[in-house]
Design goal:
Elements: E1 21-24, E2 27-29, E3 33-39, H1 46-50, E4 59-64, H2 71-78, E5 83-86, H3 92-102, E6 107-110, H4 122-130, E7 135-139, E8 146-147, H5 152-169, E9 181-184, H6 188-191, H7 200-210, E10 215-219, E11 221-222, H8 234-249, H9 253-257, H10 267-276
Parallel strand pairs: 3-4, 3-6, 4-5, 7-10, 8-11
Antiparallel strand pairs: 1-2, 6-9, 7-9
Helix pairs in contact: 4-10, 5-8, 7-8
């Protein structure tokens, strides 16, 4: 992860070709970035998703969950080089794992296909990673974040479950059940994702802590789903998340082996994020 950040001077743009990939007038990166989008019947939402994706990303991997509409055709029209992968199993966790395995980039970004995520925020996630973080975790409740799509019950449940994870695993998260995250590809070897449902995000957040990886929270704004209805069910999925927490809590050996440092906040990363946001 060396030589990944190349600042540009005020009167000099980053190189358009060669080793570095221009991100903004003050930032260029070397590592290729893959964006994974799990989608099932999201043809109406994809135009909103793709129009916010930065043109400097290396690849878009669309995981099609056996859509019955023209999701795949729309994706190819919007992003001709999109890599379409067919999901053979079921569930968001299975879709993400399928997409991760198809990625060729050094950095992987998870983006939902319902239009709730702003692709323009990807630069903040990538900046945190190239500045030293292993895992850039989106947060709707960090300073600068927000959400238009959470009921009181969901907010309360998320807060309670987040508090349990923080107490039991020594994390300092402000948000737990959010699917907008980015990480270095090597992290996959250390967190071993083995669940198939929506609880995959919680599992990732717990296992990166247990693995001693450096985590940086990124303020993110969640917008309303544009078309269609969500498959989330607050009570059902809340119990599934709780089951993951209890299951991970039962094995403390990996947690005791993690390094005794605080990977979750870095003034340097805050400075970098502030400069590029």
């Amino acid at each position: 992860m060396s030589s990944v950040l190349q600042p540009a001077t005020a009167d000099q743009n980053p190189p358009a070709t060669g080793k570095y990939r221009p991100v903004s007038s003050h930032l260029a990166i070397a590592p290729p970035v893959s964006v994974v989008i799990p989608a099932m019947n999201e043809a109406e939402n994809l135009p909103y998703v793709f129009k916010t994706l930065p043109d400097w990303i290396h690849e878009v991997v669309l995981v099609d969950g056996n859509s019955t509409d023209n999701t795949v055709e729309v994706a190819r029209e919007l992003w001709p080089d999109v890599k379409v992968v067919e999901q053979r199993g079921k569930g968001k966790g299975d879709a993400l794992n399928t997409g991760f395995q198809a990625c060729t980039g050094d950095i992987i970004v998870m983006v939902d296909a319902d239009g709730s995520a702003d692709g323009n925020e990807i630069v903040s996630y990538v900046s945190a990673l190239v500045s030293g973080a292993d895992f850039a975790k989106g947060s709707r409740f960090a300073n600068g974040g927000g959400t238009d799509d959470m009921t009181f019950i969901r907010k309360l449940g998320n807060r309670i479950l987040c508090g349990v994870v923080n107490r039991k695993f020594g994390a300092r998260y402000t948000d737990l059940c959010y699917g907008y995250n980015a990480f270095w590809r090597h992290c996959l070897d250390k967190i071993d994702l083995d669940c198939t449902g929506f609880e995959v995000e919680t599992l990732m957040n717990i296992r990166v802590v247990k693995a001693g990886l450096r985590v940086q929270e990124i303020p993110s704004h969640e917008y309303l789903r544009i078309h269609g209805t969500s498959n989330l069910r607050a009570v059902r999925d809340g119990f599934r998340v709780l089951g993951v927490i209890l299951g991970e809590r039962s094995n403390r050996r990996a947690l005791r082996r993690r390094p005794h440092h605080s990977p979750h906040h870095s003034p340097l990363l805050d400075t970098v994020r502030g400069k590029v946001s």
